Amino acid sequence: MQVTRHGLNKSSGKLGVGNRIGEKTDMQSLALLQTTKVSVSQSWVDYLIIGIYFVFVLGIGALLRKRMRSSEDYFLAGRSLPSWVTGLAFLGANLGALEILGMGAGAAEYGIMQAHFYWIGAIPAMVFVALFMIPFYYGSRVHSVPGYLKRRYNEATRGFNAILFAIFMILMSGINMYAMAIVFKLLLGWSITGSILLSAAIVLAYVLLGGLSSSIYNEVLQFFLITLGLIPLVGIGLMDSGGWSGLKQRVGKPGFFHLWADTGSTHNPMAVHWYAIVLGLGLVVSFGYWCNDFLVVQRALAAEDLAASQRTPIIAAFPKILYGILAIFPGLIVLTFLPKLGTTSSVANSYNMAVPYAMAHYFPTGLLGIGLTALMASFMSGMAGNVTAFNTVCTYDIYRSYVRGDASDRHYLYVGRVITIAGIVLSIATAYVVLQFASIMDYVQLLHSIFLAPLFGTFLLGMFWKRTTPWGGFAGLFCGTFGGLGLYILELLKVISYGSPMAGNFWRALWGWLICVGVTIIVSLFTQPKPEEELKGLVWSLTEKKQAEKQPWYKNPWVLGALALAIAIVLNVIFF
Amino acid sequence: MSGESEHRTEEALELGSGPSLLIGFYISAILLIFGVILVLYGILGPASQAHKSLGINVNLWWGLFMVFLGCVIMGTSWASPRRRAIQRSRHP
Predict the structure, then answer these.
(1) What integer pLDDT is reported at residue A99 of this predicted model?
(2) Rg (chain A; Cα; Å)
(3) Is residue A348 part of a domain?
(4) Number of domains in chain A
């Protein structure tokens, strides 16, 4: 802690302590640059910890399957969980490889601007969902995306979305598999192919041994492991770097340390104007995800009453604010000893390795096991979520609707198993796609801009404008999706270009959304809407919004939401 | 509908006073086990890797914190929902 005090108080920290730290790092980073191999010293303790994690995760799955018909249905339909459980599960369902690897990768690539994904790209939307969307969902007939699209629009919209969603899930699942593979590559030194196959084998075993039936438990566990893994990493890393100012000095890229200061033009690491951040990320991408991702929303609706449901996203928002520091700082810290990370295209030197390398660098064996388990927990649960969703969509929304609609439940369960295994195999293929991108973050936001941004437009108009017609919705979704895809192809062909991959993602999301909204409105004005009785429970103005009972101030979602927003604003000012 | 929710409450009590209690025990158990492993390794394990974490025996300290956290979660799980469920079964 002496180091930090010196670094913060003396502006000319060149004498004394600051210099000594600088020397040590120069030698270290030189050595590391020459080998591009961070030395990781794992031992039996780490494998023991990982092993115990698997025992717990598979054990709770086996225990729950014996006691209940289906643990997920039990919890999610039972509506009996306290808000701390649903809040942490809500966050856990959202966490995955993206959070741990992707955010660190983004920070190594773009600096602290990556934190926009939290303090403007998550918190406002989470508060909005809690205060406005949950009461609507509670009193509505909306329980899933396909269900909503079919009832509000038509079969064509539902079917089109189902196919897109299946593709989206397999692409996302490949990312989680890739993430697991690169951690194995670091640990075991295998080739990327060997590591991917090892990951696939582990996931297959996890699924077949019933790991999918205990998701709420593992989502809450994941939250604790990730937080407990990242806090020491950021703590030790900051101490080693000499605090925030020491970090700025060591990384040596001033643009990496401002959230908004350089966004009046595109002369910032993300090469994006402030309004593209606010509209593309803050509005379209952010609200599109938090309002419409039913895997996450479901957890909120499982709480014991409406007030608890409303508290759920806000309870999740507070740790999410903290992750803006915990998940982002390792990416900056790793640049102090691996300044050339991401500048070559090898897997070992990619931005994605930011967090694993930071862990390997600072964690002795023992704590390293905890860190690796936290990584594994997030990849597994991310993959499990994607594969389950892929299974549900393919079996019920595609197979049962279009191939064979009249079979028994046992038949669909069997088909489901086949599809799950096929999904894991396909994920191996999509894992290789990730290699084409400098970081997971760039790739995921690309997928979000094509698959989620237009869907958000479809939802928004469906929920808030009675006049939206079924064919309007279909046309909008279709044009928005292919519009975004078209823009991406133009980018690949270099017909249009943005200053950075992330700038492209924000703009593509915004355009995809605008195209969808525009086409939906125009086509709706020329086609027939559904009668109002059919729209009750599906449109805001035609649905009764339930009122929660009066709560004491510390349980009031409005008070808590305002607090979360205030903290996010303060952080935006501090890191301006 | 009420028959169903009664059945669910019974199942919940069977599991040990509710799913939140079980989740609390699950989390605190794993945190306690991991914490104890870290503490033991921090005390008894080889000291050669202390240089990584700037000379602090982070296994020991963080392990102690995890044990503490595990106890806190176990304590709050034990106290709150159990009492709620017992009260509910006394005043149906």
Answers:
(1) 80
(2) 24
(3) yes
(4) 1
Q: What is the identity of the amino acid at A369?
A: G
Residue A518 pLDDT class (50, 70, 90 cuts): very high
- A15 domain-assigned: no
Compare all CA atoms of chain B with the CA of A231 and give the residue at the minimum distance.
B62
Residue B2 pLDDT greater than 60, yes or no: no
**pTM confidence score:** 0.82
- According to DSSP, the residues that pair with A425 across neighbouring strands are none
Q: Which residues of B touch A364 (CB under 8 A)?
A: 49-50, 52-53, 58-59
Predicted complex ipTM: 0.79
**Interface with B, mutate which of A21, A367, A372 (most B CBs under 10 A):** A367
CATH number for the domain including A234? 1.20.1730.10
> What is the rounded CA–CA span in Å between residue A278 and residue A306?
30
CB contact under 8 A, A362 and B42: no
Segments forming the whole domain that contains residue A183:
46-540+551-574
The token pair that represents A185 in the structure block = 């590559």
d(CA A190, CA A102): 22
- Phi, psi angle pair for A81, to nearest 5°: -90, 145
| Total Cβ atoms within 10 A of residue A348 | 16
The C-alpha angle with vertex A151 and arms to A526 and A461, in degrees rounded to 5, equals 50
Listing DSSP states for A149-196 in one string gives HHHHS-HHHHHHHHHHHHHHHHHHHHHHHHHHHHHHHHHH---HHHHH
Question: What phi, psi does A303 have (nearest 5°)?
Answer: -75, 170
Measure A217 CA to nearest chain B CA, in Å: 6
Instruction: Provide, as residue numbers in chain B, all residues whose Cβ is less than 8 Å from the Cβ of A56.
Output: 26, 29-30
Task: Please give the pLDDT value at position A75.
Answer: 52
In a domain, A359, yes or no: yes
Question: Dihedral of CA A137/A143/A146/A152: which sign?
Answer: negative
Distance, in Å, from the CA atom of A287 to the CA atom of A122, rounded to the nearest integer, reads: 8
Q: What is the mean pLDDT of residues A181-209?
A: 82
With CA atoms as reference, report the closest residue to A228 among B74, B52, B34: B34
Q: Kindly state the DSSP code that residue A363 receives in the 8-state scheme.
A: P
Q: How far apart are the first and last CA of chain A?
A: 25
**Closest Cα in chain B to A53:** B30
Backbone torsions φ then ψ of A327, nearest 5 degrees: -85, -25
B23-61 pLDDT, tens per residue?
888 999 999 999 999 999 888 877 666 566 677 788 888
